Structure formats: C-alpha cells, structure tokens
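Hey,

Quick one before I head out. I ran the complex with tryptophan overnight. Inputs first:
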Amino acid sequence: MEAQNTQPKKQRIFSAIQPTGVFTLGNYIGAVRNWDTLQEEYECIYAIADLHAITVMQEPAELRKNTMQAFALMLACGMDPKRSITFVQSQNPHHAELSWVLSCSTMFGELSRMTQFKDKSQRHADNINAGLFTYPVLMAADILAYNADLVPIGADQKQHLELARNIAQRFNQRFGETFTVPDGYFPKQGARLMSLQDPTKKMSKSDENANGCVYILDDKDTILRKFKRAVTDSDTEVCYKEGKDGINNLMTIYGAVTGKTMDEITAEFAGKGYGDFKIAVGEAVADHLEPVRSEFARLIADKAYLTECMTNGAQQAYHLTSKLIRKVYRRVGFIDRL
Ligand code: TRP
C-alpha cells in the first residue's frame, strides 16, 4: 500500500530585506537567530529587495556589492538554500510585472496615506520619485506573487501589509479568488535590546551615536569597545532593577547570548565592578557572533558559490510565481502570455 503523507502542509512565509546595511545585534537576537526553527516549521521564501532599494539614490556599483553582501549574510545567518528559497528580487521579473497590474487596483488616496512615504519624501526631498510612492504596491506584489500565508514584519511595515491585504481582497472581489490574503507573522518576541548609549531607546541602525548599536559583523575589538563605553549608572551592583536601564540592558544581552538567568548573572558578578561586567558581556557577544562572522567571510570570498545559490534561488522563485502570473494576466483580460 502506498504510504500516506499525513504531514499537514506547511504554511508559507515570505519576507524580504533591503540590501542596505547589516543586521544589528538586536535584529539577530530578536529574530534572525531563530531562522533555523522557522525553516523547520514553515516553508520560507526570503528575498533581497533590490528593486525597492532604488527608490532612494543608489550608487550602482555599491548596490551590486551590497546585494551580494546581503545575500551572503542571509546564508551566513542560517537561511538554508536546501530548505528555503533565498533569492534576489530583480532576478525574478514577475515581481515587477505583477506590481504594474496591482498598481491599477491601488488607489492614489491609499498610497498618499502611507506614513513611510510621507517620512521618506521629507528625508529625500530632492528625489520624490514615483517609485517611492508606489513602493508598497511592489511590496504587495512580492507577497501576493507567492500566495504567502504569513509575512514577518516590523512595526514600520504594518501599514504596507495592511495595504497588501486590501489590494488582494479588492482584486479577488473584482476578478475572482486569485490571491491568498496574507497575515502578519509576529513571533514570540525575543529579548528587546536597547541602545548602549541611550538605554531608553531601542537599539537601531539609525542611532545617531555609532557606539549605541552593535552590528553582527563587527569585529571583536569593536564589540569590546562599544560595550566598554556602554552607558550605565552611578550604582555599582550588577542587578536587574527599575531605573537601571543601562545595566538591565546589558544583563538582558548577556542572558540572551549565554542562556543565564538574571539571578545567575547577579551572582556571577557579585563584588565585581561594572568594568568587569562590561568586558564579560562584550566577550560573550563576540563569541556568540563569531560563527556568523566567519561564515560570512567564507561565503563572500566564494563568488562562484554565491552566484550559483542566487541563480538556483531565482529559478525556484520564478517557477513558483509563473502559474499565478499567468492566471492574473488571464483574469484581467490580457492575451495569453508567451
Ligand atoms: N519594505 C520592506 C522593508 O524595508 C522590505 C520588503 C520588501 C518586504 N518586500 C517585502 C518585507 C515583502 C516583507 C514582505 O523592511
């Protein structure tokens, strides 16, 4: 008798990141280091959003380099090309094609309400291009092209996801069931890390003080230096208490990378000063990130392998979206695609 596959079909996750900058320690501890389990439980599709990146001014050679790096970083952080699809957005032409069709189901008024557009138009007042305006439509196309069930996003992308849902529903109503209406994916929040320089603010790339934020590719010396300079308080005891934001944050970080509880940490540093504690946190973080750093270094030196993974990823992505784009073209009344 034929073996029955009783495994329920995995839900599909789609997400993308722009090829700008490196993950922060906060991103890593909060989400990225859980990718392994994520890939176990879901079918994951991750893109490097280079099409989105050109909505702000980019130096072409830089963009290409950053795209390579972002891709290598995804793999170094555990995206496994055998289990998941990792690819570069511009290498699957269906994103741009679907984006056009969806833009005709998106209202000018809706896009005008997007707060990110308003923010970015202020920040890039010399380059308020149409792509910046239609950016959320392209994002909707990314998600809807794969019939994704779930989309992991930060708070800043919530409004865009809501728009993607509205576009999907509108299209489905007008042309018949075509797209899965996606939901946000909000994993159990790992530790939330704060800036080392202002521990009342979230650790973020946009911290105006470079020492406030640790990046996962920072070398050991840089990491140690940032932790040595971390802002604390005038007390001396390493313990988790209200009002000790700096120490609380360092304890959270130390706990997240060593698995130790707050009590264990307090006991470990009883009678020692903040200086010793800061060095210990820096060392533990550097050790924790070392495998990612060395894997990244290995990958970025192996262009042939990276290119091969990109090509495979893009082909798989293209294959996945082919059927749906055909359906969409037929539904809106185009002559059959070639
Ligand atoms: N706009 C997202 C960001 O800047 C990146 C992105 C592009 C994305 N397409 C997406 C995220 C689709 C989730 C799903 O963070």
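The CA atoms of residues 130 and 318 lie 26 Å apart.

Talk tomorrow,
K.
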